[in-house]
Amino acid sequence: MRSSSSIRTHRTATTLAVLLAGALVLTACSSSDNHDKENDGTKGGTGSAPGSTVTLPRLNGAHLEVAAVWTGPEQANFKKVLAEFEKRTGASVTFVPAQDPIINFLGSKIAGGQPPDVAMLPQPGAIKQAVQHNWAKPLGPDALKELQKNYSQGWQDIGKVGGKQYGVYYKAANKSLVWYNAKVFENANAKEPKTWKDLLATAQAVYDSGVTPFSVAGADGWTLTDWFENVYLSQAGPQKYDQLAQHRIKWTDPSVKQALTTLAQIWGKKEYLAGGQSGALQTEFPASVTQTFTGGDQPKSAMVYEADFVQVNIGETKAKVGTDAKVFPFPAVGSTAPVVTGGDAAVVLKDSKAAQALVTFLASPDAATIQAKLGGYLSPNRNVPVSAYPNAVQQKIAKALIASGDDFRFDMSDQAPQAFGGTPGKGEWQDLEDFLKNPTDVAGTQARLEKDAAAAYGSGS
To answer: Given this model, what pLDDT does residue 145 score?
Structure first.
């Protein structure tokens, strides 16, 4: 899917940035209690009524397969949601671990005559490809009704292709957050930065205190695309962001040069990266988080950039979110702070009563509330009680997402064809890994990005 004009204005990005800045205050304010009541169904508001549940058919004997790339705690928590579906319907559900890019994985399964019933697709571009291949099936009336009841129009729109609804965004992500080791900041007398200039000053203060400032998960190219998108959105602005996302301007555009040059102010300083550039390129995302929050006040790094789901990995350490592990919004590089979102959509591949029932369940607040309580998860479903989220940080992030309505920008690489924006070792992922390896090669990086983008957008793959 490509950008919807109804959700693309400079004002909307600014509004959500302000909301998120307030949302990341780590101590709950007194007004939050009343807001929680409005959203948890104990008052009027938008919350679902206490005890209400989505109506599901009995599916005794039915067996379903659900494919997703989720691993570790994320997979384990989702399986608990599937277990509730089994309990309510009598169906049995098997989770099928998929590999990135999931479109290639699904292609192999379908070619072998064994497609899963439902797939969780992490990119609008992947949904479009699934429709183009005639793999995806439109949502049935029950799923549509549940989706329309619980989701803003913007979240509905990004699951559409050709005007038909194919995806239910079960999971969302706020991708404009920087998490930090609170003890390291305290020892360095470092402040939470508001601007890019402030971020560089904070990094220097941390470095001077004897701790490496940043952990960068360079082994996972998707984290590098997220870094770029935040810098680019804030610096170049929403209009340019949308143009680049749709490849209506080239990656050789001066605005891309400016963003890469800005990124190089951090990526180009070996002493600012845990393990230097070579170490960063060998660091996978989970390790980038855990090495920031283990080792007391002498960890391998002080800060790690990534989305709200970082909390799942923090949970694998002894650090506590809100005290040991704190967070600030990605600093403003231009006039306003960036707000980038992502998500995973449930898409039906085998159009059966059972598959449609599962997607209906995933569109309901019932399913999302189960996973919200387990932590490390954010739902765009506006009828999930805010009180379901397990800590003040997550509750405030959830409030900000729902309060934003349709006012967000979706992850740029996720909007691209998977060959460019979603494949390990190819396209943007590889090009930015190469740039991390040699941050002085701005022009060469731009040329490679444009070559790969032109090939992928031209083929639609």
So the answer is: 98
Q: Which two tokens stand for residue 450?
A: 């444009």
Q: For residues 149 and 152, what is the distance between their CA atoms, to the nearest angstrom? A: 9
Which of 26, 20, 422, 450 lies closest to 234, judged by CA? 20
- Residues 128, 436: Cα–Cα separation, whole Å: 30
Rg (CA), the chain: 21
- Which element (helix H / strand E) includes 174? strand 167-174
**Residue pair 402/19 in contact by the 8 Å Cβ criterion:** no
Walking along the chain (461 residues) 10 residues at a time, the average pLDDT comes out as 31 42 41 36 33 85 97 93 98 95 94 97 91 97 98 94 97 94 98 97 98 98 97 95 96 98 98 98 97 95 95 90 92 91 95 98 98 93 96 86 78 91 95 98 98 90 64
450 inside domain:
no
Question: Is there a domain that residue 2 lies in?
Answer: no
Of 392, 410, 428, the one marking the end of a domain is 410
Q: How much is the pLDDT for 29?
A: 34
CA distance 226 to 409: 12
Regarding whether 307 and 398 lie in a shared domain, the answer is no
**Of 104, 101, 193, 143, whose CA–CA distance to 346 is shortest?**
143
Q: What is the pLDDT of residue 91?
A: 98
| Residue 295's CATH number | 3.40.190.10
Q: Which of 366, 390, 410 is the last residue before a domain boundary?
A: 410
Q: What is the dihedral of CA 131, 136, 137, 140, to 10 degrees?
A: -100
Nearest CA to 149 out of 35, 46, 51, 55 is that of 46
Q: How many CB atoms lie within 10 A of CB 137?
A: 21
Residue 208's domain spans which residues?
Answer: 177-338
Ordered strands of the 325-329 beta sheet = 214-215, 303-305, 177-181, 325-329
Are 384 and 295 found together in one domain?
A: no
Same domain, 184 and 170: no
Are 83 and 201 contained in the same domain? Answer: no
> How far is the CA of 444 from the CAs of 64, 74, 236, 382, in angstroms?
47, 37, 20, 44
The reply to whether 313 and 243 lie within a common domain is yes
Give the model's pLDDT for residue 73. Answer: 87
- Count of structural domains within the chain: 2
Tell me the whole-structure pTM to 2 decimals.
Answer: 0.76
> Is 292:181 a contact under the CB 8 Å cutoff?
yes
Q: Which helix (H) or strand (E) covers residue 326, if one does?
A: strand 325-329
